[in-house]
Protein backbone atom coordinates (compact mmCIF):
# COMPACT_ATOMS: atom_id res chain seq x y z
CA UNK A 1 0.00 0.00 0.00
CA UNK A 2 2.80 2.39 0.85
CA UNK A 3 4.41 1.67 -2.49
CA UNK A 4 1.19 2.58 -4.32
CA UNK A 5 0.89 5.91 -2.46
CA UNK A 6 4.53 6.73 -3.21
CA UNK A 7 4.04 6.03 -6.93
CA UNK A 8 0.94 8.25 -7.04
CA UNK A 9 2.83 11.10 -5.39
CA UNK A 10 5.65 10.79 -7.91
CA UNK A 11 3.22 10.84 -10.82
CA UNK A 12 1.47 13.92 -9.38
CA UNK A 13 4.73 15.82 -8.98
CA UNK A 14 5.88 14.87 -12.46
CA UNK A 15 2.60 16.09 -13.94
CA UNK A 16 2.89 19.46 -12.19
CA UNK A 17 6.43 20.01 -13.47
CA UNK A 18 5.22 19.67 -17.08
CA UNK A 19 2.65 22.50 -16.84
CA UNK A 20 3.62 25.46 -19.18
CA UNK A 21 5.06 28.45 -17.29
CA UNK A 22 3.40 31.83 -17.68
CA UNK A 23 5.56 34.17 -19.85
CA UNK A 24 4.92 37.62 -21.24
CA UNK A 25 6.79 38.66 -24.40
CA UNK A 26 8.08 42.22 -24.81
CA UNK A 27 7.20 44.35 -27.82
CA UNK A 28 9.54 46.50 -29.88
CA UNK A 29 9.12 50.27 -30.19
CA UNK A 30 11.12 51.65 -33.11
CA UNK A 31 11.93 55.36 -32.90
CA UNK A 32 12.85 55.83 -36.56
CA UNK A 33 14.72 58.76 -38.07
CA UNK A 34 12.84 58.70 -41.38
CA UNK A 35 14.92 61.16 -43.43
CA UNK A 36 16.10 63.29 -40.50
CA UNK A 37 19.75 63.37 -39.43
CA UNK A 38 19.71 61.74 -36.01
CA UNK A 39 20.38 58.21 -34.76
CA UNK A 40 17.31 55.93 -34.65
CA UNK A 41 16.61 53.81 -31.56
CA UNK A 42 14.68 50.66 -30.71
CA UNK A 43 13.49 49.81 -27.18
CA UNK A 44 11.70 46.80 -25.71
CA UNK A 45 8.70 47.42 -23.49
CA UNK A 46 6.04 45.30 -21.87
CA UNK A 47 2.58 45.39 -23.46
CA UNK A 48 0.51 48.01 -21.69
CA UNK A 49 3.59 49.93 -20.52
CA UNK A 50 3.70 53.67 -21.24
CA UNK A 51 6.48 55.30 -23.24
CA UNK A 52 7.45 57.52 -20.31
CA UNK A 53 10.67 55.79 -19.30
CA UNK A 54 11.80 55.37 -22.92
CA UNK A 55 10.58 58.61 -24.44
CA UNK A 56 13.29 60.87 -25.87
CA UNK A 57 13.38 64.07 -27.90
CA UNK A 58 15.80 64.12 -30.86
CA UNK A 59 17.56 67.34 -31.77
CA UNK A 60 17.46 68.75 -35.29
CA UNK A 61 19.14 72.14 -35.95
CA UNK A 62 16.61 74.71 -37.11
CA UNK A 63 13.58 72.72 -35.96
CA UNK A 64 11.46 72.32 -32.83
CA UNK A 65 10.59 68.74 -31.87
CA UNK A 66 6.80 68.29 -31.54
CA UNK A 67 6.45 64.58 -30.78
CA UNK A 68 6.24 61.06 -32.20
CA UNK A 69 3.45 59.55 -34.28
CA UNK A 70 2.60 56.44 -36.22
CA UNK A 71 2.11 56.68 -39.97
CA UNK A 72 -1.19 58.45 -40.50
CA UNK A 73 -1.82 58.65 -36.77
CA UNK A 74 -1.95 61.48 -34.23
CA UNK A 75 1.03 62.82 -32.30
CA UNK A 76 1.72 60.71 -29.21
CA UNK A 77 3.08 61.74 -25.83
CA UNK A 78 4.96 60.22 -22.90
CA UNK A 79 1.77 58.76 -21.41
CA UNK A 80 0.88 56.80 -24.55
CA UNK A 81 0.50 53.05 -23.99
CA UNK A 82 1.29 50.63 -26.82
CA UNK A 83 0.34 46.97 -26.98
CA UNK A 84 2.15 45.82 -30.10
CA UNK A 85 5.40 46.37 -31.95
CA UNK A 86 5.20 49.91 -33.38
CA UNK A 87 7.19 52.20 -35.64
CA UNK A 88 7.17 55.82 -34.51
CA UNK A 89 8.14 58.78 -36.71
CA UNK A 90 9.31 62.20 -35.46
CA UNK A 91 7.29 65.36 -35.98
CA UNK A 92 9.27 68.60 -36.27
CA UNK A 93 8.21 72.22 -36.69
CA UNK A 94 10.49 74.59 -38.60
CA UNK A 95 11.78 77.47 -36.47
CA UNK A 96 11.85 81.16 -37.40
CA UNK A 97 14.91 83.34 -36.72
CA UNK A 98 15.32 87.13 -36.50
CA UNK A 99 17.93 89.12 -38.41
CA UNK A 100 19.03 92.52 -37.08
CA UNK A 101 20.78 95.09 -39.28
CA UNK A 102 23.48 97.47 -38.09
CA UNK A 103 23.86 99.63 -41.20
CA UNK A 104 26.68 101.91 -39.99
CA UNK A 105 25.11 104.36 -42.44
CA UNK A 106 22.54 107.12 -42.79
CA UNK A 107 19.51 104.81 -43.03
CA UNK A 108 18.05 102.14 -40.76
CA UNK A 109 16.58 98.77 -41.71
CA UNK A 110 13.94 97.06 -39.60
CA UNK A 111 14.61 93.49 -38.38
CA UNK A 112 13.20 90.63 -40.47
CA UNK A 113 12.40 87.02 -39.65
CA UNK A 114 12.92 84.02 -41.91
CA UNK A 115 12.34 80.30 -41.51
CA UNK A 116 15.29 77.91 -41.19
CA UNK A 117 15.11 76.80 -44.84
CA UNK A 118 14.44 80.27 -46.26
CA UNK A 119 17.12 82.53 -47.73
CA UNK A 120 17.51 86.26 -47.19
CA UNK A 121 17.90 88.13 -50.49
CA UNK A 122 20.60 90.56 -49.40
CA UNK A 123 20.41 92.98 -52.38
CA UNK A 124 16.89 93.84 -51.17
CA UNK A 125 18.44 95.33 -48.03
CA UNK A 126 20.87 98.01 -49.17
CA UNK A 127 21.27 101.12 -46.97
CA UNK A 128 22.60 104.53 -48.01
CA UNK A 129 25.41 106.71 -46.73
CA UNK A 130 26.40 110.03 -48.24
CA UNK A 131 29.81 109.95 -49.84
CA UNK A 132 30.18 106.18 -49.51
CA UNK A 133 29.54 103.05 -51.56
CA UNK A 134 27.93 100.12 -49.77
CA UNK A 135 30.18 97.05 -50.04
CA UNK A 136 27.97 94.47 -48.33
CA UNK A 137 26.91 92.77 -45.10
CA UNK A 138 29.13 90.99 -42.61
CA UNK A 139 28.37 88.53 -39.80
CA UNK A 140 30.79 90.14 -37.33
CA UNK A 141 31.31 93.67 -36.07
CA UNK A 142 34.99 93.47 -37.07
CA UNK A 143 33.81 93.07 -40.70
CA UNK A 144 35.90 89.98 -41.43
CA UNK A 145 33.17 87.38 -42.24
CA UNK A 146 31.35 88.30 -45.42
CA UNK A 147 27.64 87.43 -45.47
CA UNK A 148 27.43 86.50 -49.13
CA UNK A 149 24.52 84.19 -48.32
CA UNK A 150 22.12 83.98 -45.38
CA UNK A 151 20.21 80.69 -45.18
CA UNK A 152 19.74 77.63 -42.95
CA UNK A 153 19.88 79.76 -39.81
CA UNK A 154 19.90 78.01 -36.44
CA UNK A 155 19.92 81.17 -34.29
CA UNK A 156 19.11 84.88 -34.38
CA UNK A 157 21.88 86.90 -36.04
CA UNK A 158 23.03 90.49 -36.57
CA UNK A 159 24.43 91.77 -39.87
CA UNK A 160 26.85 94.70 -40.07
CA UNK A 161 27.17 97.04 -43.04
CA UNK A 162 30.55 97.77 -44.62
CA UNK A 163 31.31 100.88 -46.66
CA UNK A 164 34.11 102.37 -48.71
CA UNK A 165 34.43 106.05 -49.56
CA UNK A 166 32.81 106.85 -52.89
CA UNK A 167 35.30 107.45 -55.69
CA UNK A 168 34.93 110.40 -58.09
CA UNK A 169 36.76 111.45 -61.25
CA UNK A 170 38.74 114.64 -61.80
CA UNK A 171 39.32 115.42 -65.45
CA UNK A 172 41.93 117.95 -66.59
CA UNK A 173 40.59 119.05 -69.97
CA UNK A 174 43.52 120.08 -72.13
CA UNK A 175 41.93 119.76 -75.55
CA UNK A 176 39.22 117.76 -77.27
CA UNK A 177 41.72 114.97 -77.91
CA UNK A 178 43.73 115.27 -74.70
CA UNK A 179 42.40 114.81 -71.16
CA UNK A 180 43.99 113.52 -67.99
CA UNK A 181 41.75 111.77 -65.44
CA UNK A 182 42.50 110.93 -61.82
CA UNK A 183 40.34 109.33 -59.13
CA UNK A 184 39.71 110.94 -55.77
CA UNK A 185 37.59 110.68 -52.63
CA UNK A 186 35.64 113.51 -51.10
CA UNK A 187 37.95 115.61 -48.95
CA UNK A 188 41.13 114.45 -50.70
CA UNK A 189 43.85 116.87 -51.68
CA UNK A 190 44.87 116.52 -55.33
CA UNK A 191 48.07 117.93 -56.82
CA UNK A 192 46.91 119.57 -60.06
CA UNK A 193 48.49 118.78 -63.39
CA UNK A 194 50.94 121.49 -64.49
CA UNK A 195 51.11 121.81 -68.29
CA UNK A 196 54.29 123.00 -70.02
CA UNK A 197 52.26 125.20 -72.32
CA UNK A 198 50.71 127.59 -72.88
CA UNK A 199 53.35 129.75 -71.22
CA UNK A 200 50.74 132.10 -69.77
CA UNK A 201 48.94 129.24 -67.91
CA UNK A 202 47.53 130.47 -64.60
CA UNK A 203 45.54 127.52 -63.23
CA UNK A 204 42.43 125.42 -63.60
CA UNK A 205 38.80 126.51 -63.52
CA UNK A 206 35.45 124.78 -63.93
CA UNK A 207 33.27 125.63 -66.89
CA UNK A 208 31.58 129.04 -66.65
CA UNK A 209 33.80 130.03 -63.72
CA UNK A 210 36.67 132.49 -63.48
CA UNK A 211 37.67 131.37 -59.99
CA UNK A 212 40.66 129.07 -59.77
CA UNK A 213 39.63 125.64 -58.57
CA UNK A 214 40.66 124.67 -55.02
CA UNK A 215 42.24 121.19 -55.07
CA UNK A 216 42.93 121.11 -51.32
CA UNK A 217 39.56 119.54 -50.39
CA UNK A 218 37.79 117.76 -53.23
CA UNK A 219 33.96 117.79 -53.35
CA UNK A 220 31.55 114.83 -53.45
CA UNK A 221 31.10 114.85 -57.23
CA UNK A 222 32.94 114.41 -60.49
CA UNK A 223 34.90 117.49 -61.57
CA UNK A 224 36.06 118.73 -64.98
CA UNK A 225 38.50 121.63 -65.04
CA UNK A 226 39.82 123.72 -67.92
CA UNK A 227 43.04 125.67 -68.36
CA UNK A 228 42.94 129.38 -67.52
CA UNK A 229 45.54 131.66 -69.10
CA UNK A 230 46.38 135.32 -68.98
CA UNK A 231 44.97 135.71 -72.45
CA UNK A 232 41.53 134.40 -71.47
CA UNK A 233 41.41 135.81 -67.95
CA UNK A 234 39.74 139.04 -69.06
From TrEMBL:
Location in the cell: Cell envelope
Does the keyword section mention Signal? yes
A Pfam family annotated for this chain is Flg_new
PROSITE patterns the UniProt entry points to: PROKAR_LIPOPROTEIN
Principal place of residence: other
Q: Where does the UniProt annotation place the signal sequence?
A: 1-20
Does Cytoplasm count among this protein's keywords? Answer: no
Q: Which UniProt keywords apply?
A: Signal
Q: Which Gene3D superfamilies match?
A: Listeria-Bacteroides repeat domain (2.60.40.4270)
Q: What is this protein called?
A: InlB B-repeat-containing protein
The organism is Paracholeplasma manati
Amino acid sequence: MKKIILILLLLLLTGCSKQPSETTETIHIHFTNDFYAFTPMTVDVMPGESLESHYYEPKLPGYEFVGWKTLGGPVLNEETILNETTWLFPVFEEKSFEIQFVTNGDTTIEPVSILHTESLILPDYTPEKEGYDFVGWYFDVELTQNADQVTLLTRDITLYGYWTPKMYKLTFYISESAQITVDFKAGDTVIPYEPLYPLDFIGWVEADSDTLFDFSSMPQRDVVVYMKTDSNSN
